[in-house]
Amino acid sequence: MKKIGYAVLGLGIGLAHADAVLTHPDATLAALCDIDPKKLEKAAGLYPGAKLYDDFEALIADENVDIISVCLPSHLHADYAVRAMRAGKHVLIEKPLDITPERAALIIEAAKETGMRAGVVHQNRFNLNMYPIKEAVENGRLGKLFLGTFAVKWYREQKYYDRGGWRGTWECDGGGSLMNQAVHTVDLMQWLMGDVESVTSTMDICHHKIDTEDMTASLIKFKSGATATFVSTTCAYPGISTEIMLYGTQGSIEADADMIRTWKMADSDDEDEEEEEILARYGKGNRAAAKLEPGRSYGHEHVIHDMIEAVRDGRDPQVLPEEAIKSVRIVCSVYESARTKKTVFIP
Ligand SMILES: NC(=O)c1ccc[n+]([C@@H]2O[C@H](COP(=O)([O-])OP(=O)(O)OC[C@H]3O[C@@H](n4cnc5c(N)ncnc54)[C@H](O)[C@@H]3O)[C@@H](O)[C@H]2O)c1
User: Any idea where the domains of the chain sit in the sequence?
Assistant: First the structure.
């Protein structure tokens, strides 16, 4: 079988995509593209087999390229993903899908129009702790899910914003701590708790010299009737936690990033023993959990391998743009609510 030709566009986090391609037996790292000559020079040393491009049009004309990972600054995702699909390439797009729902929708339309496959990098859905959490929610073990509390308490130094140029700007990043860092957790929130009905939010610039925000706080109402609080910041020195906490009438789960901290299920034959087992397996994060579940991948490797296999097997990738647009819509509604000081309803 001919190997699938994989290309990476944008060589920041794009390098993690390139590394993951190299570990898949059915793909070859065909090409890398960036407009920064220093990035290309570095890539030439790291990936000697890949063709290097500084011109996107030349990249999409390369017949050896089947899939392109779009790892550009967030405001460029739709523009480049659509052009790649129109040139006959499948695309894997970094989060957020783009910085407005209108632009994100262009990706969905182009995938339909061209028949090319489009996947999105929301790798936290594949943290190993998420499998038992999602299963418990779907099987109704928590009873009626009435409350969620979500908090992304991270830290970024000023130089992080100064370095990228595009980071922390409305035009290119589409926001700050919420659009860039916490969008992963927004995605998990709506994936676990369902469609959001409204948001009532505030935001502030607490510590950094940026245009957008480095702190948001929201009250979220779901179509199900449940409620959640959601806070995001890049000012919590030195970076504290990512809290994903779910409370139902029959059970409670508290997770921190890729770990599970609390697991209480009223329907359990032995609540304490079940919690002990879950914490032993998922209490220390992905790396420790993966030792007990050989063959199960997570992080970027999981998502890139899934994309390769989706194209190889003629199926959809695990996270579609139709799913990823939901977190963009929620984030933009939070910003609108914070600006207008009004509750924003999501149709
Ligand atoms: N999934 C994750 O955990 C994760 C982590 C980091 C970043 N991201 C996302 O990945 C995207 C990129 O972030 P980053 O941190 O790698 O940014 P970055 O600034 O480090 O890298 C972006 C690269 O794109 C290149 N570039 C810009 N315009 C280009 C163009 N027109 N053609 C070719 N190359 C171009 C730049 O030269 C740069 O090397 C963002 O959308 C970000 O939100 C996701």
Answer: 4-123+299-319, 125-293+328-345
Q: Does domain 4-123+299-319 have CATH number 3.40.50.720?
A: yes
Q: Is the CB of 111 under 6 A from ligand 1?
A: no
| Structure tokens that stand for 39 in this block | 């990035």
The burial class, CB within 10 Å (0-12 / 13-18 / 19+), for 64 is: middle
Counting from 1 in the atom list of ligand 1, the atom nearest the Cα of 183 is: 43
Q: What is the pLDDT of residues 121-168, one digit of tens each?
A: 999 999 999 999 999 999 999 999 999 999 999 999 999 999 878 999
Architecture of domain 125-293+328-345: 2-Layer Sandwich (3.30)
Confidence of residue 91 (pLDDT cuts 50, 70, 90): very high
Which residue among 32, 72, 327 has the greatest number of ligand 1 atoms within 8 angstroms of its CB, and so is best to mutate? 72
User: Best mutation site among 34, 38, 107, 156 for ligand 1, i.e. most ligand atoms within 8 A of its Cβ?
Assistant: 34
Beta strands in 55-173 (DSSP E): 67-70, 90-93, 118-120, 145-153
Q: What is the pLDDT at residue 295?
A: 85
Compute the distance from residue 76 Cα to the ligand 1 centre, in Å: 9
